[in-house]
Amino acid sequence: MNTGAPAALKEKKLFLFDIDGTLAVGDTLYPGSTDLLHHIDRIGGKAYYITNNSTRSCRDYVEKFRRVFHLDTAEDQFITSGYMTLRFLTEQYADSKIFVLGTASFVTELRKNGLHITEHAEADAACVVVAYDSELTYDKLVQTCKILSTTHIPFYATNPDLCCPIDFGFVPDCGAICNMITDSTGKKPVYLGKPSRAVVDLCLERSGFSRKETLVVGDRLYTDIACGINGEVDTCVLFTGEARPEDMTDTPYPATYCFANVKELLMHCTEAP
After folding, report:
1. Distance between CA atoms of 36 and 49, rounded to whole angstroms?
2. Is the Cα dihedral 40, 45, 50, 56 positive or negative?
3. What is the pLDDT of residues 16-61, one digit of tens each?
4. How many Cα atoms occupy the beta-carbon half-sphere of 192 within 13 Å?
5. Which of 25, 36, 206, 267 suits 116 as a labelling partner, its CA being 20 to 30 A distant?
6. How many CB atoms within 10 Å of residue 142?
7. 9: left (phi over 0), alpha (psi -120 to 50) or beta
8. Buried (b) or exposed (e) across 218-247, using 16+ Cβ within 10 A?
9. pLDDT digit string (tens) for 189-222?
């Protein structure tokens, strides 16, 4: 099933990990995740975490990794869809009013960075932004549909993921929320997180590693693996989240490597030739 030579994995130094469904589920790290991260440190490599979960800020993730996973990280190692959205809005809409559907934490993070945010359907808003919202209410959907139905302003969203892994299975993610809005208004969003090539480019810029030294690791083909393909780097899908082995037979997003879990990836990264 793997199209790449497993020996080439030992040349990788920059690992761009999805989190939910790849390294962990909820507050539980998968077996082998800590060992793989320690291996990356030992070889002088770097791990970045490219998650489409916009409910947490980069600072929140640093705290979770320290408190829950007992792993030390830095804020610049986290490239969230929320962070990519913040960068885009700061560049394009710094002086404009922005309508946002998202968690209180996401809205607070945007406001802390100087953006003018509204959560009501105001006529002078310059664009609409929808994020994964674990605090979603029907009124939020009503406000979003109202502004999209009564204006012609651009519609953006953090990420196209349809479902988010949780301890019992999956719950609706940003893509599923956007599908409800699209079905009601006919308006489709432009997504700003994975699978955008910009995510890979930012990690390369920050780390100094080459594309040849880089591996994107995830559990979802149309976001994680597509992101790596768009960024022209090798990819690895783990069957611990959404993707299944049977999905590999006919996909527009073929992964360079396919493994059952993170322990199997670690084995191929460390095994003797």
Report:
1. 14
2. positive
3. 999 999 999 989 999 999 999 999 999 999 999 999 988 788 889 9
4. 26
5. 206
6. 12
7. alpha
8. bbbbbbbbbbbbbbebbbbbbbbbbbeeeb
9. 999 999 999 999 999 999 999 999 999 999 999 9
